Amino acid sequence: MSLRGTINFARRIETGLRARFNPVRRVLIDARTPMNYSVAAPIYRAMRDDSRVAFYFTSSEKPGRQADIFREAGCGARVITPRRAFPMKFDAYLASDILWARLLRGACRIQMFHGVAGKYGNVYDSPEFSMRDWDRLFFINSRRLSAFVRSGAIDGESRAARLVGMPKLDCLVDGSLKRDEVLTSLEIDPARQTVLYAPTWSPYSSLNAMGEELVEALCAKGYAVLVKLHDRSRDPEYMHSGGVDWCARLEPVLAEHGGVLAVGSNACPYLAAADVLITDHSSVGFEFMLLDRPVVRIEMPKLIAETNISPDYVDLLAAASTSVTSVKQALTAVEYALEQPAHLSEERRAVAREIFYEPGTATQRAVQELYQAIELDPPG
Predict the structure, then answer these.
(1) Cα(170)–Cα(219) distance, integer angstroms
(2) What is the pTM of this model?
């Protein structure tokens, strides 16, 4: 038996003994950004009251930022360093990005994914490397599952593949988020027409090309403007934000006109609050279609090229949105969208069906799969 085989055999023996003699299962959630955590958060919230399951949190790549990354997990969350996690025994390991914390004693490795826009397709959509080391792959849609098989990342009959959906989006369709309530919590009059600007991260995004001008113009038109920056657009590194402090740049403009710079890592409440979304090429553009409200898409050809987005995803988003290339065109498109919100409704619904597997019940499936992975029966 090889050294790796011997190690895996020893890990299986320990796992079996723990399952038999230890009633508490340990689950480790690993995240690079607050947004990564928000993907796993619905599972944590659904299971945290089960005394048989203990959740832990770490950031294998950004341990110095753990307090910020897991801020929304609450003050009682067991946040531990990667160094402390290394020798501990975990029954399951959850990640929503291509992360791989070193765990001496192994775990059932579960990949949840975090985006649907097709960015960096050779990594997230059609990997150029094997994903067979993952014990479970919680696919958001059958489109990506099929792409993994075609690229050779997994086998066609992979036992790891699970069609789950995207748990964090259940709240967009289950009625738990109310537009007026979210706006009131943000101190925005629900009577105002509300526009959400949510660009992707990249020095080639619309944020760098025209973001400040667009926000100023929307405010000048009298709209209630929400801006949801991607977590990485808050990072000072050039490759993430273009080297601009966007919070410092945009907050004064928004504050002057009663707008809001979103602080939460989960975009869903802000999506629920908006009448119209403006984006370039980001997962939120697809997510907003679950609400069947108008999307204005800013064409950014260099962004598409530099972030290796498949033309299929560009075409999907373009077909269900109004495409613009300037601030002036964006303002015109927003005005039309507010007057004719049903325009492209059929296209939006079709794209949402293509991209999201059975939204509204994804958390339930993910929780069931996790209980199975840690060899526990669900409560009740």
Answers:
(1) 31
(2) 0.93
